[in-house]
């Protein structure tokens, strides 16, 4: 019997996944991606109209639907991901679940205690005695298992309210813990639609994750449901069979509970990368909004209202002129991010201009969150970087050449010609960061800078300017 139930569970999961995959394929085939994006924009527009009251209004409406038991309450969980994003959506659904469960519990307890006919009707149900036995035998453990199950939450709420289970310890706390797996699964299912909408803009890795985590969530839910089926079957075993069982069989329920808890922890671990990762943007462009107009928020900074976006948002003059070269290292680096150039917002890139005077250099530094692709606009430079083993890779670059500095590796640039050298760079992060040698080492009265400059310029005499790599580390 359990084997047949297991096959049915896997079959239902396979059918559900195939249906979602088919819907995504049809949407791509007939160009419904744009309509899906428009629907998402409409949902977010309604949310923006409510402003800070959007989340409380959603929680109140969802809690009320849970208490009134309509069949479409699950739609609220899917809509949460569209309205608020994955992590805020999970928080809103979680709050609504806890509030709705508490409201349903006290409504049900009042009804079943005031109206004996309602209690008699419930007792006539053949499954109600399983709930009563489970509560009597295991208390909060049974409630926790019930929350792990795929049963609608309002059925569990009202069924438990008819028993003698305590509210805080045996009902509320297991509800807080046990409702999270199903919330994570239901909210993340919408990311399948999000993957279809963002299929042309998101990275390959983000698209794979958008499909992978919901599928793993469905599979984990099927496994949890199967273990709960075994647990509930054990509740209806006659007492004489229980007395004749061995000590090992007597502990089957504890093993089932341990398995379910392990599945719960696994489910949380699977969804952790999805929670902490950035979702792809849901609109084409998003120039950063001025301080007083920040109402629409996506990846990065708040966005301007689409009706106020202009072509000038995507043009900048900040890289037109050389920087100040009157300094100790005779160079200037100007990194432009979305803070200075609003059109870069949510695009995941930043730009830089570097000017180096004769015998000048850009001191060794790294970008912890970005790789850098440098284009030599004028002059001649020596550019290089060190890997984690201290191996030097450097090249002499002329006008028009391109060189790449891998993410996080220390790199430098030196002017190798007899005139001003200018380079332009693109970094694949909206906030690449710069980690350089401390300012204290290069104070005006420090001798370290002069020694370092002499060491850097001595590369010319070592004949390393046109080699692809050097094995010896770069030390004093």
Automatic annotation (TrEMBL):
Main subcellular localisation: secreted
Keyword ATP-binding included in the entry's annotation: no
Listed name of the protein: Cupin type-1 domain-containing protein
Record-level Gene Ontology MF annotations: manganese ion binding
One GO term of the biological process aspect: plasmodesmata-mediated intercellular transport
Transmembrane feature ranges: 53-73, 80-99, 142-160, 172-196, 208-228
GO CC annotation: apoplast; membrane; plasmodesma
Residues annotated for Mn(2+) binding in this entry: 365, 367, 372, 411
Disulfide bonds: 286-303
Family designation: Belongs to the germin family.
Source organism of this protein record: Oryza rufipogon (Brownbeard rice)
């Amino acid at each position: 019997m359990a084997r047949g139930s297991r096959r049915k569970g896997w079959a239902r999961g396979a059918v559900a996944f195939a249906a979602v995959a088919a819907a995504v394929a049809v949407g791509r085939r007939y160009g419904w991606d744009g309509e899906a994006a428009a629907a998402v924009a409409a949902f977010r527009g309604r949310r923006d109209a409510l402003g800070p009251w959007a989340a409380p209004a959603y929680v109140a409406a969802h809690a009320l639907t849970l208490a009134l038991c309509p069949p479409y309450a699950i739609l609220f969980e899917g809509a949460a991901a569209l309205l608020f994003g994955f992590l805020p959506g999970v928080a809103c659904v979680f709050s609504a679940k806890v509030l709705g469960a508490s409201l349903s519990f006290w409504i049900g307890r009042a009804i079943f205690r005031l109206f004996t006919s309602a209690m008699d009707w419930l007792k006539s149900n053949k499954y109600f005695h399983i709930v009563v036995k489970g509560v009597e035998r295991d208390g909060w453990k049974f409630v926790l298992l019930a929350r792990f199950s795929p049963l609608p939450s309002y059925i569990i709420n009202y069924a438990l309210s008819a028993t003698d289970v305590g509210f805080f310890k045996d009902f509320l706390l297991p509800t807080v813990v046990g409702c999270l797996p199903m919330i994570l699964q239901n909210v993340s299912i919408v990311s399948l639609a999000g993957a279809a909408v963002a299929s042309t803009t998101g990275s390959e890795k983000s698209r794979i994750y958008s499909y992978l985590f919901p599928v793993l969530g469905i599979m984990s839910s099927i496994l949890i449901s199967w273990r709960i089926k075994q647990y509930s079957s054990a509740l209806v075993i006659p007492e004489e069979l229980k007395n004749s069982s061995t000590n090992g069989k007597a502990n089957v329920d504890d093993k089932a509970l341990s398995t379910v808890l392990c599945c719960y922890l696994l489910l949380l671990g699977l969804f952790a990368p999805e929670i902490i990762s950035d979702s792809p943007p849901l609109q084409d462009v998003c120039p950063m909004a001025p301080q007083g107009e920040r109402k629409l928020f996506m990846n990065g900074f708040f966005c301007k209202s689409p009706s106020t976006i202009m072509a000038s948002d995507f043009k900048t003059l900040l890289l037109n002129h050389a920087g100040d070269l009157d300094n100790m290292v005779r160079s200037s680096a100007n990194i432009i991010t979305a803070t200075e150039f609003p059109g870069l917002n949510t695009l995941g890139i930043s730009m830089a201009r570097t000017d180096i005077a004769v015998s000048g250099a850009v001191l060794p530094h790294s970008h912890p969150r970005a790789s850098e692709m440098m284009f030599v606009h004028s002059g001649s430079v020596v550019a290089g970087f060190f890997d984690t083993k201290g191996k030097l890779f450097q090249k002499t670059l002329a006008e028009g050449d391109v060189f790449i500095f891998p993410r996080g590796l220390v790199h430098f640039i030196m002017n190798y010609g007899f005139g001003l050298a200018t380079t332009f760079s693109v970094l694949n992060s909206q906030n690449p960061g710069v980690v350089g040698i401390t300012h204290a080492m290069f104070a005006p009265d420090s001798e370290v800078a002069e020694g370092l400059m002499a060491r850097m310029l001595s590369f010319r005499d070592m004949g390393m300017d046109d080699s692809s790599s050097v094995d010896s580390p770069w030390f004093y």
